[in-house]
Amino acid sequence: METILTRRRVLGLAATGMGGSWPLSATPASAEPSAGFSSAAVGASSISRYPTSVVLLGDSITDKNLYIHPNVFTAYQDEGFWTWAAIRLRQRARLVGVFGYSGQRTDYIASKAAEALATGAGWLVEEGGTNDLTGGVSAEDIIANKIAIWTQAQEAGARVVATTIIPQSSWSPSQRMQAQRVNEWIRSQAHELGVLPCSWDVPITDPGTGDALSGSIRADGLHPTATGAAAMGRRLATLLEGVIPPGDILGTGGDATNLLPNSAMTGNRSGLATGWTLKNASNGVTAAAASKVARQDDLPGEWQQIKVAAGDTSGISLYRVITSGFSAGDSLYARWEFERDNDWAALPASGANQFRLRVYCLGVDRAVYGLNHVGPEAPSAASVPSSGVLATPPLVVPEGTTALVFGVEFRGQGTLRLGRGELRMTLPSS
């Protein structure tokens, strides 16, 4: 993998309260190794661990989960496996740190495990090995380094998910054999060490050739596309589904702690929930059809349904403007549940808003995104789950913000439904 400035991203962990524990902030930092995203917990020798919190540790495949453009935007990326896993888990597991070291091998990653564990996360998702294979490191040494990471986590009181090495198009036959040896060892032996193995190489490997499945790896031959990351995230979510405590993290309408007006999408104004605005992606009139649809689960209320007809390439933006309840310096996060039908056409390969949640600050150029797309390969329509919860990273409201715009953008064709949305203050740290 290409060697670039490595970024550590620690989101922090809030005290438990309404909805559980939540990330606090993400602050831009300078280059690795000595600088990065920090929190007060880093370096703590004895910290409480939260059973629904997750920290990611690995190389640039891990780094793809979170992108920070200093003083412009922060985003959970669609090339990140955790972005997709969290959507499928309906955000029941809270991401508290992303420690991705581009170009680094597992011995270096092992040396950074203590920093990742200092976030207080109850779960560590460990990824790595591709750069080792490129550098000629043996399967035995890769396994030893991974065990060193797992041991540190277990001694610190965290549980571990060990992930397999994904296929790369540039490998020699010898490198592929070493990767297969590591993967088979993880699949067969990780359980014996109290670690959960996640075989996410399987859904993106061609069963006939052993090569990466077409469309799952970027043109660089190394990193997963959004479609590949979605398949990896699905495998990870399936694994965690049985061990992350169940529950519904979303509230209901009329909650005064929710800054989003009409968060339950009530009312009907020509098919649109009261107070909400529907435009095309260029903020013009849209031909998309809006309607209210009764919920079919055990909750009262309705879905806001938007249907974009086949052939309509203008995209849509459904949004609400918030003018009160916040101040400069407040830390906020957003979530929104959705459903979709199986009529989605392929999402376009250009543009950065195929399907994403956005909170934008009017008056200054600052935003946060959930499921943001920036890579050259757009996710396939089938990659998007039939239902889930989108979420953004924390947003610290900057000085000069006059209003916040909460909304979803969809650049594709098909039927989309939005339900309960939330824009909340992060909880104070404990």
What does this structure look like?
The chain is built from eight helices and 19 strands. It has two domains: 7-241, SGNH hydrolase (Rossmann fold), CATH 3.40.50; 277-425, Galactose-binding domain-like (Jelly Rolls, Sandwich). Helices cover 18% and strands 28% of the residues. The two termini are 38 Å apart. With 430 residues, it is an alpha+beta fold. The chain is globular, with a radius of gyration of 21 Å. Helix 2 crosses helix 8 and helix 6 (139-155) packs parallel to helix 7 (173-189). The strands form three sheets. A seven-stranded mixed β-sheet has the order 3-4-15-14-18-12-9, with no helix packed on it.
Main β-sheet, in a few words?
7 strands, mixed
CATH class of the largest domain: Alpha Beta
| Arithmetic mean of pLDDT | 87
Please provide the count of β strands: 19
Give the proportion of residues in helices: 10-25%
**CATH architecture term of the largest domain:** 3-Layer(aba) Sandwich
Strand order of the largest sheet: 3-4-15-14-18-12-9
CATH superfamily of the largest domain: SGNH hydrolase
Order of helices and strands: EEHEEHEHHEHHEHEHEEEEEEEEEEE
**Beta fraction of the residues?**
25-35%
**In total, how many domains does the architecture comprise?**
2
Structural class: alpha+beta
Q: Helix tally? A: 8
Tell me, briefly, the overall form: globular
Parts with pLDDT < 50 across at least 5 consecutive residues: 1-7, 12-46
Rg over alpha carbons: 21 Å
